[in-house]
């Protein structure tokens, strides 16, 4: 089989076309490269602008964070130096750490040497129970009986401790009857060992004969949760 060889004319024509194409391509390539360079330069400038904006935003955020930290530190210092707020006590009650207290004189509650509540005592304790249920519903109720230092002679009690404890029990039992939960009530007798004043006069001894009722946060005295 005889292969057909291209003619000289055909070769020259193809060569001329190739030369013509090569002569035209460099201009197009330069133009395309310029366009790409301009596009890349534009994108680079845009990226730099975004980076600069992000940097400024980060610096502003850092400035605000430092300001907030300083303000928080100042606030903590103010709170540390501020006095602890005290709950406003109910009328007739005195504010104490963890709650409030009311002191009732012996002659309001009991006859001399007795532990049975007087009729007028019940009215007083009704008001106390109402206050406890209204304002101190979340508190433990501690009842302390106190006496003067005069020894027991005729009432039949072993000593002032026993008398003061029995009196506090009378108050606790009455408060329970008035709706105070038993697990919130504590009775204690102090006898003559925690006087308000010295026992050198009848007036002072009268002031020492009393019952104190405390409404206290459970954890403040008993450690209960």
- Please, what is the average pLDDT? 83
Strand order in the sheet with the most strands: 1-2-5-3-4
Instruction: Find the count of extended strands (DSSP E, 2+ residues).
Output: 5
pLDDT < 50 runs, ≥5 residues? 1-19
Largest sheet: 5 strands, mixed
Shape: rod-shaped
Number of helices: 6
Rg from alpha-carbon coordinates: 48 Å
Q: Oligomeric state of the chains?
A: single chain
Order of helices and strands: HEEHHEHEHEH
Structural class: alpha+beta
End-to-end gap: 112 Å
Features:
single chain, 225 residues, alpha+beta, five-stranded mixed β-sheet, 6 helices, 5 strands, 55% helix, rod-shaped
Structure commentary:
The structure is a single chain. Helix content is 55%, strand content 13%. It is α+β, with helices and mostly antiparallel strands and 225 residues long. Strands 1-2-5-3-4 form a five-stranded mixed sheet. It is rod-shaped and about 130 Å long. Residues 1-19 have low confidence and may be disordered.
């Amino acid at each position: 089989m005889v292969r057909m060889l291209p003619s000289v004319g055909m070769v020259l024509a193809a060569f001329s076309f190739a030369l013509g194409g090569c002569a035209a391509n460099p201009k197009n390539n330069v133009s395309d490269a310029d366009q790409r360079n301009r596009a890349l330069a534009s994108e680079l400038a845009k990226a730099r602008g975004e980076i600069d904006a992000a940097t400024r935003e980060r610096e502003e955020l850092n400035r605000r964070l430092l300001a907030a930290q300083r303000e928080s530190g100042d606030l903590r210092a103010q709170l540390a130096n501020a006095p602890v707020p005290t709950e406003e006590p109910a009328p007739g009650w005195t504010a104490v750490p963890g709650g409030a207290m009311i002191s009732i004189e012996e002659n309001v509650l009991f006859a001399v040497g007795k532990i049975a509540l007087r009729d007028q005592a019940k009215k007083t304790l009704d008001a106390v129970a109402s206050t406890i249920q209204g304002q101190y519903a979340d508190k433990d109720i501690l009842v302390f009986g106190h006496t003067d230092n005069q020894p027991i002679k005729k009432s039949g009690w072993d000593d002032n401790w026993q008398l003061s404890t029995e009196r506090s029990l009378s108050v606790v039992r009455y408060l329970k009857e008035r709706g105070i939960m038993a697990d919130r009530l504590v009775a204690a007798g102090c006898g003559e060992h925690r006087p308000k004043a010295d026992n050198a006069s009848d007036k002072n001894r009268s002031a020492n004969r009393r019952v104190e009722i405390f409404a206290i946060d459970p954890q403040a005295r008993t450690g209960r949760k």
